[in-house]
Records
---
Amino acid sequence: MINHQSNWIRPEIEQKIDALLAKMTLEEKAGQLTQLPSAFSDLPGDDATTANNPDTIQKSRREQHEELIRQGGVGSYLGVQGAAVINRLQKIAVEESRLGIPLIFGLDVIHGYRTMFPIPLAEACSWEPDLARRAAEAAAREASAAGLNWTFAPMVDIARDARWGRIAEGSGEDPYLGSAFAAARVQGFQGSDPADPDHLAACAKHYVAYGGAVGGRDYNTVEMALQTLHDIYLPPFKAAVDAGVLTLMSAFNDLNGVPASANPYTLTTVLRGQFGFKGFVVSDWNSIGELIPHGFAADRRDAARQALPAGADMDMCTESYRYEIADLVKSGALPLEVVDLAVRRVLRVKFLLGLFDNPYRSTSEKETKTLLAPEHLALAREAGRKAIVLLKNEHQTLPLSRSLKKLAVVGPLADSQADMLGSWSFTASPKDVVTILEGIKTAVAPGCEVFHAEGCAVLSANEFDEKAAQAVSLAQAADVVVAVVGETADMSGEAASRMSLGLPGEQETLLRRLAATGKPLVVVLVNGRPLSIPWVAEHASAILETWQLGVQAGHAVADVLFGDFNPSAKLAATFPYSAGQEPIYYNHPNTGRPANDTKFTSKYIDGPVEPLYPFGYGLSYTTFAYRDLEITPTEASAGEPIQVSVTLQNTGAVTGTEVAQLYIADLVASRVRPVKELKGFQKVTLPAGEAQKITFILEQDSLAFYNPAMQRVVEPGKFQVWVGPNSQEGLCGEFQII
Ligand code: NOJ
């Protein structure tokens, strides 16, 4: 790998840092560890406490911030956008501050800047990490053209609970798939050299276990065994670190009683000691301040005293470091070396980004030229089609025939622009979005009439009967009904946990009325999380899970509806029957009483224990068969790789792409192991009728886990292995490690 962490230690840079550290005052050092927010596009500073500081209250916010930059009192801004304003502020830092240290400008560029790509969860359903790499690279090109140096992405949190709204921002529930996407996105954002002005520093977040929030409630507490932390939640962070990520963000949650932003075990022992991370850690927004309501710190000074030595190098937004560090050091409560180490890490990243040599990385002209570039839009469409999961296709309802004469396109999300963008889309503009209705209208053959009615609102029940009746009458007059339903953009993402996972509002009632017309009913889902939709699964003729696909949503959906693109995506997160099953995930540990037909087994008395759609599931317009599983050797000595191969055949009538998945189970171990774990996948395109042998090499290291003594081990014994189309089906064989 080109960008391993060891590449980030360069003697010439470290010497420059030594020289700077020797000149810096304590206040300037604290400044480098301070990041301030801005909600304005033309000047930094809105709710920063600076604005309320009695020393500066008399001055305008702009003046206050300019003065602060001049004093070296701030090292970074978040939320400032646009090459012009960023260059103006940078000029003050570089030309008017005593030491001329450049600022680093960060922003949440999560799934695109102006060209919005599918939400990360959707992109993960492509099972094509290189697609995510290319999308991240395009996002970096646009964001850096807008003056930015740093994105707070990728979000690599494992999410096993669909109630948690932030499941939308990551790659789903699996550590193997999540690690592949984490590495790919880091490579995309940073490129092979982050000093290249078309790239950004990436930030793996939220470190760590944020997705384990009890009850799926955002910001809630997390309790988990250290083995689960290391086996499941840490691997995507490790993958990001190995891919050379320059920064990490410490999370809001506490983990087993210790808040993530003041946790020396995760931030220092693991991240620095075990993973060898050489960049810096920024705390999440106010998370150092939140040590106080956590009851972990008495006040701001105490919070700073704990967070910095634990390993949170830069404070996002609370200014605890800016106000407290100098005094803490002078009073002997904080060793100077701790401060110097954190400053060194921040300066190292600034040097690696080339900010000292080229602080003005863009211009307004470049910005205008780069945003919404045609190749970015083409990539957004490609990513959109590859993210769409075909969940059901009874009687080959899809693809729709181009000889259709009358098509009803109904539902509250059919003609929505803003809802296609998903969460973290404030840098995009809804007016750039192709709606699903528009995409369909563009795609139909000239003679086809497209009728449209909203049918109902996503949430409100106002005038439901009237609206639904209108949609039903259009359905009655049409050959096929496409109903676009789901969640609004703000129903997933941060602070958007749900306690129910069904279609919100009256949308299911609308679908029931549409189904009663007897017309083929294609349900197009738009949402940021797995939904529990058992009625839809049973009664719709076809279901497309389209997530939130970004600016090209309408074209991507139409491409799949009309068969211009054969769907190939597979779920990156389990769909439950009911929210009551959450957290539900395929790689759960064995129980002593697996569910069966008898009473005293692990299940529910009022619903199935199985998911509605399992992890890895997704259909195609063709069919695939797996045969001839071969495992060599079936008895392997320690360290010997195992080769697993199958023949995959396209048994349908059209060319298609299948994601063949390899799972293993460790049958007897010193710690209860998951029933199955993904350890490989291959995306293969085959013309109709063709077969291909595909081979996986299973390295024994991928069988390792943390034992009760917290040692990472591969234990001898029997393993099962499956190769198949999802986490519930496939050919099964066995091998043994001796
Ligand atoms: C809070 C969110 O948790 C985090 O993901 C984001 O990067 C920061 N705010 C900055 O916007």
---
Amino acid sequence: MMPDNCVFCKIMAGEIPAKVVYEDEKVTAIEDINPQAPHHYLIFPRKHVRTTLDLSDADTEMVGHVFQVAGKLARDRGFADQGFRVVNNCNEGAGQSVWHIHFHLLGGRNFSWPPG
Ligand code: 5GP
Ligand code: ZN
């Protein structure tokens, strides 16, 4: 079910504009509105799942698919060889601010470790 106040559900419904860089029957990928790297995309499922803690067996294939889409975007956009990050923030302490599960794909620069 689509919650009325979910920004990513609204983007998929065309109610909020976004730069869509990939979509298929399982996931959508958009440019992040506040990019933290030269390439910063958000990959999320069509199905509204609140956080990583809410994933079920039915979502296992989707999560694997997200990583395949991340690799495809990185290759297609030319930053795969340099290296990239796929990040999921779960709950407020980790920085989650949108409550529809999503995976950040960050690339086009070098990244330090540990993350902040
Ligand atoms: P989180 O903090 O939950 O891990 O990541 C949420 C991300 O969504 C942030 O990087 C933020 O910039 C992005 N974001 C929030 N609202 C919008 C929006 O309306 N459009 C787009 N394209 N990105 C958004
Ligand atoms: Zn949603």
---
Amino acid sequence: MGIENKVAEPITDCAARGLRHIAFIMDGNGRWAKQRGLPRELGHTAGAANFKKITRYCSDIGIPAVTVYAFSTENWKRSKTEVSALMRLFGEYLTNEFDEMMVNDLRVVFLGDRAPLSNSLKVLMERMESASVNNSRLLNIAINYGGRAEIVQAVNKLIAEGRTDITEEDITSHLYTAHCPPPDLVVRTGAEMRLSNFLIWQSAYSELYFSDVLWPDLTPGDIDAAVAAFFSRERRFGNA
Ligand code: IPE
Ligand code: IPE
Ligand code: MG
């Protein structure tokens, strides 16, 4: 952690100042558990609890859209125990957070290929999405999500529509994120400096922020630091 980590005044009007969408690669749950001599699954439990705290804080500081990377297309490689624990936590979120979602005026959208998920999860996901479709703040949850797979499914949809001469706009509008702008800021916790197949099309001009903090330990103060770093940068988008 560098000097970016201490911020005098938190910025609380993010959207008005140009930060409308923040995306998180929630990494470090396993190492958090290991540090404490706990099974990895308990790291995910702590991570899931912190996800609720952090997404709420982002909305408190005026960021209208948040995306989180919860499970990648590559995470199936993990042990059966770990994958089951992640799916169980996801199911708990879908049942326990429904009322809170409505109270908080949150629209939940799931990004990814849901085909391999259990039927009970799929039903709960559809229920959450359809009940919240008219809510104003946005939470995208990437589950069984992979950026390359997302681009491939977009191209296949365009082929099925009989399209030729594909434009960038066509791809963008056939991604799982067609309903929202690209992330202004992508934050990865857990000290790894890579995207791990997350929003690879959408992040072409996102600001990237890497934190050494493990996801379950991430605090609102760390978000303030990431946000302050974002506003200290000049986004040129190729201009001089
Ligand atoms: C991120 O934490 C959560 C998921 C990938 C589901 P990890 O489980 O990758 O934690 P580390 O990287 O092993 O510490
Ligand atoms: C990225 O973390 C996926 C999620 C946070 C869901 P990983 O821990 O799976 O990424 P790698 O394996 O370190 O690249
Ligand atoms: Mg990891």
